[in-house]
What we know:
Layout: H1 3-21, E1 23-29, E2 33-41, E3 62-71, E4 75-76, E5 79-80, H2 83-101, E6 107-112, E7 118-127, H3 135-143, E8 154-166, E9 169-172, E10 182-193, H4 194-206, E11 210-216, H5 217-225, H6 228-233, E12 235-240, E13 245-251, E14 254-261, H7 265-276, H8 280-290, H9 297-301, E15 303-305, H10 313-316, E16 319-321, H11 322-347, E17 356-360, H12 369-377, E18 381-383, H13 402-412, H14 430-436, H15 439-443
Parallel strand pairs: 1-6, 6-11, 12-17, 17-18
Antiparallel strand pairs: 1-2, 2-3, 4-5, 7-10, 8-9, 8-10, 12-13, 13-14, 15-16
Amino acid sequence: MMDLYDSQRNMRNMRKIAMQRGVVAILDVGSSKIAALVLRFDGSAKVGDDGDIGALAGQSGFRVIGAATTRSRGVHFGEITAMQETERAIRTALQAAQKMAGIRVDHVIACFAGAEPRSYGLDAQIQLDGQVVTEDDVARVMSQCDVPDYGDGREVLHAQPVNFALDHRSGLSDPRGQLGNELSVDMHMLTVDAAAVHHVAHCIKRCDLELAGIASSAYVSGVSTLVEDEQELGSACIDMGGGATSISIFIKKHMIFADSVRMGGDHVTSDISLGLQVPTANAERIKTFYGGVHATGMDDREMIDIGGDTGDYEHDRRTASRAELIGIMRPRVEEILEEVRARLDAAGFDHLPSQQIVLTGGGSQIPGLDGLASKILGHQVRLGRPLRVHGLPQAATGPSFASAVGLSLLAAHPQDEWWDFDVPADRYPARSLRRAVKWFRDNW
């Protein structure tokens, strides 16, 4: 009955222990790279302070003292497919980050992409009879939310109150201590494929570490790349990773929708590899140095050396024009953006007061991508880099570190989740929660 509640709460307690000890590891399990950071909290971040995430939240609270990345193995579309390979890659990244930090870490907070996220909006209201709103009332109104039957093999990853209303005053982030007759809440619940979560939890356990939190990449990328106004007025964050492209929509500083497209930069690379008949490593290099999505007359004349080192002179001396390369890349990039557009349309993104779109992630670095994206998505698009955080090495400040940095900010200042409140056991929506996170019973 209380599995979900206890174990998510268990993770929150682990986070508090980590904060008291002063160090925690951050792990971004991606399809093309696994990034690990070690954070040291300097005590200025108050452990119990679970306030909203502002644009610079947590800046004074921690510094990065270790960072490492390793090529990802066994991860496709953002999901783990070969457990032992991924475990080895995770160990490698975490050990290197700990070595740089010169300290051993026991607790890790992880994020991953893919896993078919689905968003649900829940709401409920309760009568108060003119009383002051207490913590118990907040817990009670949340427990009244009718949880949809989201299907077997799915787990709740996030369940956040995004808005409270007291009588006719809406948009309250915290109604406690105020007077009123009717309290209502809007919640955003995100479910993902259960196996994806089990695999991440299992890998971390196998590395002899305690899991102190788990989050969706779509969410944390938005936290690190959207500035405060964008989070407040309505924006979408598109994180183009290697194997998956994550989408999140924020308004009033809360995520209200997340989705994912099972395509990313690796798909562009494999198209180049097939089109030019070169090995993947060569295709990646060609994409990085010469890639683009807009061909001009100049590009017909610019020849790229695409040879390999097979020993076959004719084969190794081949060239292709940059226009040809762009001709291979553009259709795939357009396909990814069309998919993103379909997801944003389905979410009703057009109805938000502001419709800024921020592109981030390693795949967003293709020259000219922002212009093409703004044409296909029909909104203003800007390229986003994660916020600056203390101690982050220069090499880790680019868009491909949006998730890792966002997860660091979230570690310092987590947003309220359903399980942060003392919902009385008998009031929990039993039918939904028994199924809700059965994996905790199996994993903890």
